[in-house]
Structures are given as C-alpha cells and as structure tokens.
Please model this.
Amino acid sequence: MHPTLAFEGFAGSPGTVYSNCSAPLSGAPRLALAVLVGMNAKAAHKLVETIAAHSSRMPVTLFLYGDFVETFPELVTAWAKTFTIGMRERQPFPLGHFTLQQPRWIRAGLVSAIQRLREVGLQTAYYLPENVTDTVISEAKSRGLRIIQPTARFPPTDEQHVLSVENYYKYRDVERVPKALRVITQQLDNKGGIVSLDSDHPDSYMISVFLMDYLVEKSGYNLVSIVNCLR
Model:
C-alpha cells in the first residue's frame, strides 16, 4: 500500500545509523546543527526564527513530527525554503514508549510522517528517532530512511551529562548558558558531529545565539549541512 519511496540525491544509506559526521580527508572536523521540533509551535517558531536570523546563515536541519506538519503546513513549507527538513514519528510518545510497540505500529508511525510531508510537497530521507532498536532500523530501512542520532544533545540524554538541580537548574538563566554550552562541547569532545537542540526545552532558545556564535567564531569546526555531514 505504501511502497518504499525513491530517495535520489540524499546522502547516506537507508537503515544506517549516523551519530557523527564523516571524517574529512583533511582540515577541521565537520559539525551539523539540528533542531528537534516538538508540538509546541510557539516555542518552535521562536527558536527556528532566531536561528534563521543569525548572521552566519548556518545550515540547519529541522526534524518534525507528522502531526506538526499536518497542523502547521504553511509554517513547515516556509521553513523548508531555508532549512533541510527531516522527520520524527507521527506524534510524540512518552519517552521510550514508541520503540516498545509492535513493528506494524512503528511502521505506521513512519509512514504517516512521510505522508504528511508529501501532502505539503516535501520528501526527506533523514529520520531522528528517540532511540534506536533493531525494529526501528529495519522499518526505517524499508522506508529508505537514514537514521540520525546526535553526537551532542541539548538537553543531554546520556547519564554522564544529564542535567540536574545541583548541576544546572538551581542556577539563574545567565549562569545556565555557559553550563549548557559546556555540556554540549563535552559531548562533542573536539571531534565534531551532529548537535541537536530540542525546541520543547525553553533553554534551547536561550542558548541558541550563544551556541551559534561559539560554533562560528571559536569552535574551529567546519559547519556543514546534514547532507555534507553524511557524505
């Protein structure tokens, strides 16, 4: 009923998990910036417009739920003129629960997101799941999707860098900015990769300009699109 789409011109291989950029033959490590767009359109719009207004015009990929595309089609088509569009699933799930489903429901979540993008004239081969399982890899591969897993996330999800009251939330806004940037740089470990900001976390907006200033002016990374990151 829903055949695998032809993804000509997209970098990477279907079903492959990409958690870093390909290593350049020479020069600085590559870095790609991504935004995990949640269902809060106000927060997402504020973050994305701030990134779009940055003087660097840094290439960025936006990963969208199918329900977001369906609910805000004009916003998504406007974003697609500036940003690379990637996909999440059809809708948000409580953390960890999407991948607990039977394969047919995981497949349905991916197909629905693909269909919502097609309805607004968009196609993507880049998929960012909440986590990766054998079933997710299998279903993504059958849909021609490349699986993106950020090298560095804000907020971080690994235990080593997780944010707590003591190390982050007890501090004022102005004090949290350098702490957030530090935890991102620690995850990158001077090796570059894929950095993601979650639009549902209000501090993503707060740190976005500081992060882009750092990446452009001080990081030494070669800032690339997700396409060039995977090539």
Remarks:
- The longest strand covers residues 30-36.
- Residues 128 and 148 are 5 Å apart (CA to CA).
- The mean pLDDT is 95.
- The radius of gyration is 17 Å.
